[in-house]
Amino acid sequence: MSYQHILVPVDGSKISFSAVEQAAAIAKAFNCQVTAISVVAEDPFSGADFYYSSVAIKDYLIQAYENAEKTLEQAKELAQKQGVTLNTEIIKGYVSADTINETAEDKKVDLIVMGSHGRQGFQKFFLGSFALDVLAQTVIPVLIIKE
């Protein structure tokens, strides 16, 4: 199988950067395009039952975009070390498997490479498994990086 376009969601964690390194290695081997995305929640308080000021949201958004840009710049540097040019994009929306899968479909990728924190037991029960949700909701192949 040959890949043409790989999608890598990054969140600034060590495991997401490991996924970038793996995606870059695959992209180099198949001479394909790779895009790293970082998702910024437009309204982190949606569904909250309290009122908040627009100043708090504005401050949140400024910081969230700065963090996403910094994360994507680090991802670019990791890919460049392997001689791979990484496309990057900040996606506005909910931080969810749906957002990752919709982005993958919109970009017509044929592989998603993402990290998994490997939570188990109560952590997995309470926090869920983001990678598992992506895997369960897509028909696109998903490569899960565990370390």
TrEMBL record:
Gene Ontology cellular-component terms listed: cytoplasm
Chain ranges of the UspA domain: 3-146
Localization of this protein: Cytoplasm
Gene3D superfamilies linked to this entry: HUPs
Superkingdom classification of source: Bacteria
Protein name: Universal stress protein
Xref: PANTHER family: STRESS RESPONSE PROTEIN NHAX, UNIVERSAL STRESS PROTEIN HP_0031
Keyword Chaperone annotated: no
Main location: cytoplasm
Entry keyword set: Coiled coil, Cytoplasm
Similarity field: Belongs to the universal stress protein A family.
InterPro entries linked: Rossmann-like_a/b/a_fold, Universal_stress_UspA, UspA
Coiled-coil positions: 58-85
